[in-house]
Write a structure and sequence with these properties.
Blueprint: H1 16-23, E1 28-30, H2 45-53, E2 60-68, H3 85-88, E3 93-101, E4 106-113, E5 116-123, E6 126-131, E7 136-141, H4 159-167, E8 174-178, E9 182-184, E10 187-196, E11 203-211, E12 217-224, E13 232-240, E14 258-261, H5 262-271, H6 273-290, E15 301-303, E16 310-314, H7 326-335, E17 340-343, E18 346-352, E19 357-361, E20 365-369, H8 373-382
Parallel strand pairs: 1-8, 7-14
Antiparallel strand pairs: 2-3, 2-13, 3-4, 4-5, 5-6, 6-7, 8-10, 9-10, 10-11, 11-12, 12-13, 15-16, 16-20, 17-18, 18-19, 19-20
Helix pairs in contact: 1-2, 5-6
């Protein structure tokens, strides 16, 4: 079946808009592959994008290695509070995952780290998240018209998923070219490079290795503008395009595992103190909407375009004054560890990494983008 028919669990789909933008002249297409590896026929960037767009994938299994050196500050420990700490460890260091795919409703990703294992499984209408460390399994029932993706991790767990996200960014602000042919996991591949035209972006280049035969991404790299070393990489070290056996997607909770139903967890959270506060806020927002009034903090503001876009959002209350339980207090405390900065725009805390920068102002504004701090300060001065 075509990967374009539905949104599969590992998001193998690369949007048609990516190819359309290149073919239509939206992005500059330069260079052809073939010179570096004469065993591969020449393919232009536009042709490679069409190859990926029209690829057919009936099955796949393999081993993926993910490496991350994002230059995150110590506050990255916050990630462990936001979900399975084994999954959130993907933001730093090197990790190995096993992946299996047999259609839009059958996929599995397994992350083994130290003495812990975390599995994300989609099998028909059933989706599971299992953590060996927590000895818990969360089950979600998916409607026939529901999302055809795996339970989200917030981070790409395969080259295909990462490439899907990157190719959505193709527009006139991006130069697309074909680099040297390469070999990934024993398979010949073309290298497709996406380079931001605006040198103010912290992203220097995105490189995607595309299988010469199956036309699916085998490796994905992000290079920061200040370095020729990838800040993030996810690549197959072994890959097989045979369809995995259906038994691979059957999950039976191991003895001693506490099984949670996602629907019940949501209902229990809604009955808690913080959940009731959220329901009250939603009710107020609906009341405002009915009256035709728009709350000051509704929705993010997009500043700029392309690779130097800055997103601005507002907190309900100024930084350091947020109500909430112990977890919110911990988060606020961690944010308080960020370096203090100030300027004509006011004062606040600054988050920096190799690929992105964030600014939390003391008056409750949040700015984020793949840009240097100066760009955020400029946005904070003009958007109050």
């Amino acid at each position: 079946m075509s990967v374009l028919t539905k949104r599969p669990v590992l998001r193998w789909l690369v949007p048609a808009t990516a190819a359309a933008a290149v073919i239509g002249g939206g992005a500059a297409v330069a260079t052809v592959a073939g010179a570096a590896d004469p065993t591969l026929p020449e393919r232009s960037a536009a042709q490679l994008l069409v190859d990926v767009q029209t690829a057919r994938l009936d099955g796949l299994s393999g081993t993926v290695v993910q490496r991350a050196d994002l230059g995150l500050p110590p506050i990255a420990s916050l990630a462990g509070m936001l979900g399975d700490d084994n999954l959130m460890s993907l933001v730093d260091g090197q990790h190995t995952l096993r992946v299996w795919y047999a259609g839009p409703d059958k996929a599995r990703v397994s992350l083994v780290g130290g003495n812990a294992q975390t599995d994300l499984i989609r099998n028909g209408s059933d989706a599971w998240v299992w953590s060996s460390r927590a000895k818990t399994a969360t089950h979600t029932k998916i409607d026939a018209d529901g999302d055809h993706g795996a339970p989200p991790t917030g981070l790409p767990t395969s080259p295909q998923e990462a490439a899907d996200l990157a190719l959505k960014a193709i527009e006139p602000s991006t130069q697309v070219s074909v680099g040297r042919s390469t070999n990934i996991a024993g398979r010949d591949a073309y290298e497709l490079n996406l380079t931001p035209r605006d040198r103010a972006s912290l992203v220097g280049q995105i490189s995607i290795a595309v299988d010469a035969t199956e036309h699916v991404p085998l490796r994905f790299r992000i290079y920061p503008s200040a370095s020729d070393k990838p800040a993030f990489e996810v690549a197959f070290t072994m890959v097989n395009f045979d369809r995995p056996d259906d038994a691979q997607f059957t999950f039976n909770p191991p003895p001693g595992t506490k099984v949670n139903e996602a629907k019940q967890l949501v209902e229990d959270a809604a009955k808690s103190k913080d959940g009731q506060a959220l329901q009250d806020r939603i009710a107020k927002e609906k009341e405002r909407a009915a009256k035709g009034t728009k709350p000051a903090g509704e929705g993010p503001t997009v500043i700029g375009t392309g690779w130097t876009t800055v997103i601005m959002a507002r907190l309900d209350q100024p930084a350091g004054q947020q109500p909430g339980g112990d977890e919110m207090k911990q988060i606020t405390g961690l944010l308080g560890q960020l370096p203090k900065v100030s300027g004509a725009w006011g004062s606040g805390r600054l988050f920096t990494s190799h690929l992105a920068t964030g600014l939390l102002t003391d008056d409750g504004r949040v700015f984020f983008g793949a840009v240097a701090p100066e760009k955020l300060y400029e946005a904070a001065t003009t958007h109050r």
